[in-house]
Amino acid sequence: MPAVRVLVSGAGIAGTTLAYWLHRNGFEPVVVERAPALRPGGYKIDIRGAALEVVERMGLMDPIRQARTDIRSASIVNAKGRKVAGLDGDTFGGREHGDAEIHRGELGHLLYGLTESAVDYRFGDSVKALEPTGDGVDVAFEHGAQEHFDLVVGADGLHSRTRGLAFGPEADYVRDLGYGVASYSVPNDLGLDRCELTYVGPGRTALVYNAAGNEHATALFLWAAAALDYDRSDRASQVALLREAYANEGWEVPKLLAAAETAPDFYFDSLSQIHMDRWSQGRAALIGDAAHCASAASGQGTSLALVGGYVLAGELAKAKGDPAAFAAYEGLMRPFAKANQALGPSNVKGMVIPTKARIGASMAFLALVSRLPGKERLMGPVVKAIHKAANAIDLPHYGA
After folding, report:
1. In the chain, which stretches have pLDDT less than 70?
2. Gene3D superfamilies, alphabetically (predicted)?
3. Is the pTM of this model over 0.85?
4. I need a surface site. Which of 15, 165, 233, 316 has the fewest CB within 10 A?
5. According to CATH, what is the number of the domain 73-99+176-271+350-378?
């Protein structure tokens, strides 16, 4: 029998993970990606819980450990740059039990390396239209001829075009959490060495860190922004909004903002989640952020993408390519996604503090905690919640 052809829209973490497991299970995946190449850089991400088992089964654990950020300390600073509180990097990041922190771009390249020679990747193109047929889906591409596929999977992120074509407008599914987020590379003018500094102002937070092996640093901005309205194709307007949000802010913020104009990996978006009643329609399905974006505040988007790619490929293999597998995949993944989505709204409230009074109280508490013996135990409830969600799925064993 000919291999089942599966179009995967998006070469991010979810798409490349799915492509790997589809190929390993005997399918013929084709990955189309709008960007001209893999996206470099990106913010640091954590691989936790069930996702650790997925990368272990892919043989990637050792390379991931070698590429880890190795952030060793994290400090809170005031407007004059004085450190008011500090924790070790793992405690600050809520990591334990072998969790791995790595840059998103590094993980993307590792996943791509597993599949580059075996999977048909088509960069610089995207899906234009989907036309269901009796035995599959006819797909029209922006820059290619129309082709027929047995199945189509949207792995193209929060603003998924595949979701829009198969399920309807983004506005029907997006839930804005009321914050903006931006991240990009900056010069390491502070001379940081595997450490992270965070500055908190009323309604806005800025941080910068340097990871192992990097000459540059990375900045992250997270601020309160109800109904953030912007053009996703207009970088200049995004930079202007970021500058406006942090106007007259102290510490190193003006220098960090100056790098936004030329950073090669500039990222800007609203902090949002995707909530859908179902993730499949006929022979089309969604995975990763396209299906259930938990937001960057959850810290679990990458783990959801890794687990989702593994589970969807495994269920399709069990069903020999029958789209009925989509329901089984969703049955396993939905409780897991829901548990991790719940982390986003609660986490962001601790990241962005609305008033000077509350900031003062939080800084005083953190200063006290950082001086106490056994301070790791005081962070226990936060870490426990993260790891409960990260392990909220019994990961199946599939044949391949």
Report:
1. 1, 88-97, 373-382, 400
2. D-Amino Acid Oxidase, subunit A, domain 2 (3.30.9.10), FAD/NAD(P)-binding domain (3.50.50.60)
3. yes
4. 233
5. 3.30.9.30
